[in-house]
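queue> pop job 88
queue> type: inverse folding (structure -> sequence)
queue> payload:
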């Protein structure tokens, strides 16, 4: 499918918004991402973004500190709404039209997530920022990203990470780890490679959703990925 008609769902982790600080929202990182998103959208891409909240709070970490898991996950979902509003502001200052859709109803801040409404916004060229995960605890934003990609009929799921794709081992621990250019879903499972949590990954495989795992912290990579260039590792049912 040519880039002018591609519909893409980007999974954007909250940690990427924190930049080098590791916590909060780094203005320079946010501005860079907004600029690259603008390049992709202006090339004709219909873009939805599922945003995480790990730069503000991580449900698993809060649980380890003694919070109830459901309460911690609910706090994490609220953090994604804060990130969505920040990203929306940055994108609109660049002249892009956006909509924030939340899986948790909060009408004064965001529209409620309705599948058909999200699709209509995409068809009109609006950047759709999908906040609050699935709206339920115990589900990761990876699962939310795959779910929303399938629901809106995305041609591709982009998963931005801090490494250059999928490796045979953790490249931070083993500098000799091999990076793969392309993998099938079954190869990822058989080799026990960590791409995303199993619930999300299985859903992607069952729905034959192509995915691209790439390093979003490298300037220019996001714009290139949105415009259909080969960066990172492509995962599909058949390669």
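queue> result:
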């Amino acid at each position: 499918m040519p880039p002018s008609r591609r519909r893409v769902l980007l999974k954007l982790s909250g940690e990427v918004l924190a930049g080098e600080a590791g916590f909060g929202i780094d203005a320079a990182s946010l501005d860079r991402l907004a600029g690259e998103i603008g390049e992709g959208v202006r090339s004709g891409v219909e873009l939805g973004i599922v945003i995480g909240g790990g730069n503000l709070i991580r449900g698993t970490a809060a649980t380890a500190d003694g919070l109830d898991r459901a309460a911690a996950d609910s706090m994490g979902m609220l953090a994604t709404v804060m990130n969505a509003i920040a990203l929306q502001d940055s994108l609109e200052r660049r002249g892009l039209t956006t909509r924030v859709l939340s899986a948790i109803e909060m009408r004064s801040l965001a529209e409620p997530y309705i599948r058909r409404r999200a699709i209509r916004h995409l068809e009109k060229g609006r950047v759709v920022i999908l906040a609050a995960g699935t709206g339920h605890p115990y589900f990761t934003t990876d699962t939310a990203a795959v779910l929303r990609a399938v629901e809106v009929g995305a041609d591709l799921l982009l998963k931005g990470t801090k490494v250059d794709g999928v490796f045979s081992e953790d490249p931070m621990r083993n500098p000799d780890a091999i990076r793969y250019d392309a993998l099938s879903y079954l190869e990822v499972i058989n080799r026990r490679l960590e791409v995303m949590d199993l619930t999300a990954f299985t859903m992607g495989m069952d729905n034959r959703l192509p995915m691209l795992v790439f390093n979003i912290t490298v300037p220019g990579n996001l714009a290139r990925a949105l415009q259909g260039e080969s960066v990172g590792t492509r995962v599909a049912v058949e390669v």
